[in-house]
């Protein structure tokens, strides 16, 4: 079978995912705003997960999402979130890439497909952390709800950064269009 039909096994997909996992770790680690009520934090790593998924596809987005859990292990107090982050962010990255790829076939609009994909992926992140805090960490719902607006802002900040960047990447590197 041709390598193009096996996106997870292409060297470009794996390399891009690994590079973006490192970028997610750094972007998450260097800019955080703690949320004292839940010990979670607002960060900018989301944008890197989105860029990886939108430019290189679902499997690069999945690999890139793992970088956020590495950052959790480096940030004081973040280790409690690392297992959830690994599942939530890899799922989010995969879904953004998968949905974007599907929507591009129907809409032909990079902005519409990317924005829709990010909003759906962001909902996975928002509900994933809420559920983890309530079910696994045992936070009262009222406390876990305090983090929801921060996670919404994190998703919207990621969207605001990722969409213009993917347009710039596609202009500068038109050959990457084949990865979508």
Summarize the structure in words.
Strand 1 (32-35) and strand 2 (40-43) form a beta hairpin. With 180 residues, this protein is mainly α. It has a single domain, classed as Arp2/3 complex 21 kDa subunit ARPC3 (Orthogonal Bundle). Helix content is 74%, strand content 4%. The model is unreliable at 1-6 (pLDDT under 50). A two-stranded antiparallel sheet has the order 1-2. It has six helices and two strands, in the order H-E-E-H-H-H-H-H. The radius of gyration is 16 Å and the shape is globular.
The tally of strands reads 2
Strand content: under 5%
Low-confidence stretches: 1-6
CATH fold-type name: Arp2/3 complex 21 kDa subunit ARPC3
What features would you highlight for this structure?
180 residues; mainly alpha; Arp2/3 complex 21 kDa subunit ARPC3; two-stranded antiparallel ribbon; 2 strands
Question: Layout of SSEs?
Answer:
Elements lengths: L10 H20 L1 E4 L4 E4 L1 H12 L1 H17 L7 H26 L2 H27 L4 H32 L8
Antiparallel strand pairs: 1-2
Concise overview:
With 180 residues, the protein is mostly helical. 74% of the residues lie in helices and 4% in strands.
């Amino acid at each position: 079978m041709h390598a193009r039909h096996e996106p997870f096994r292409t060297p470009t997909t794996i390399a891009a995912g690994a590079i973006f996992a490192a970028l997610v770790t750094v972007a998450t680690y260097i800019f955080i705003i703690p949320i004292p009520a839940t010990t979670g934090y607002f960060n900018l790593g989301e944008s890197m997960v989105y860029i990886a998924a939108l430019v290189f596809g679902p499997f690069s987005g999945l690999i890139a999402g793992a970088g956020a859990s590495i950052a959790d292990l480096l940030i004081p107090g973040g280790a409690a979130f690392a297992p959830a982050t690994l599942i939530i962010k890899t799922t989010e990255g995969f879904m953004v890439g998968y949905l974007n790829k599907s929507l591009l076939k129907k809409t032909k609009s990079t902005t519409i497909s990317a924005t829709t994909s990010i909003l759906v992926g962001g909902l996975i992140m928002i509900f994933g952390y809420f559920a983890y805090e309530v079910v696994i960490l045992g936070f009262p719902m009222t406390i876990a709800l305090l983090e929801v607006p921060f996670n919404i802002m994190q998703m919207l900040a990621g969207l605001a950064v990722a969409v213009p960047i993917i347009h710039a990447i596609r202009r500068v590197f038109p050959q990457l269009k084949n990865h979508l």
